[in-house]
Design a protein that fits this description.
Oligomer: single chain
Number of domains: 1
Largest sheet: 7 strands, mixed
Structural class: alpha+beta
Helix content: 10-25%
Length: about 220
């Protein structure tokens, strides 16, 4: 990790302890159809996992929904206890903000769908880890102003239509949300994506695909 990224990560991790709520003129709720993440304007991160639960190849069921549900709840509870001393897995069980919370756990058509909400990007990374085996290997979420303050360059960026974006225009929108990410995953944003780096593929106004080992930028309003 280079020095600029270290400084940016440290600054944004600290900032997540305070109010970073942005105001989005365009709002898009999370509607995942496959494994991916959702970045909200308040800088929270929600993940969606879709995993096969097919028992057809086994004489006895290898995957048992009740066991998986217990495992997921115990894992999230243990994570929250370690991070914040809160041994809960659901936001409905406490008035405190949990580092991670199960929002949905469904079993349908031999597939399990697990949606977890994290209070910030660092909690997401701490929960899943950053090895090559996970879809997201690095993640930083903040504002364009955070990036400017950390000395980040916005050269070689594109607008939503694929045209070269002016660094001056990007820097003028300091309250927009900046996402720095590496990995292979789908990223949905609460607000409309207005700028991204060249390696990002936009699939609609709110959704992007990232791949490869390099760090990509997504900026939404």
């Amino acid at each position: 990790m280079n020095l600029v990224k270290k400084l940016l990560t440290a600054a944004l991790a600290a900032a997540c302890l305070f109010s970073l709520t942005g105001c989005s003129l365009f709002s898009h709720s999370f509607d995942p159809k496959k494994t991916g993440i959702y970045i909200a304007s308040d800088r929270s991160v929600t993940s969606a996992e879709f995993t096969s639960f097919d028992n057809s190849a086994f004489e006895k069921p290898r995957y048992v929904s009740s066991e998986f549900q217990t495992y997921a709840q115990d894992t999230v509870s243990a994570f929250n206890k370690e991070k914040a001393g809160l041994e809960f897995f659901s936001a409905d069980d406490t008035k405190e903000t949990l580092p991670a919370a199960i929002e949905k756990l469904e079993f349908e058509d031999e597939t399990v769908k697990l949606i977890l909400k994290f209070r910030g990007f660092q909690d997401y990374l701490d929960f899943y880890g950053t090895t090559d085996a996970v879809p997201v290997r690095s993640l930083v979420v903040g504002s364009v102003q955070d990036g400017i303050s950390s000395g980040l360059s916005f050269e070689s960026m594109k607008d939503a239509d694929g045209n070269d974006a002016s660094e001056e225009d990007i820097r003028a929108n300091t309250d927009y949300t900046l996402v720095m990410i590496s990995g292979d995953t789908e990223v949905q944003c609460e607000g409309k994506i207005v700028y991204c780096s060249a390696g990002v593929k936009l699939t609609d106004k709110y959704t992007a695909e990232v791949s490869g080992s390099g760090t990509e930028f997504i900026i939404f309003k």
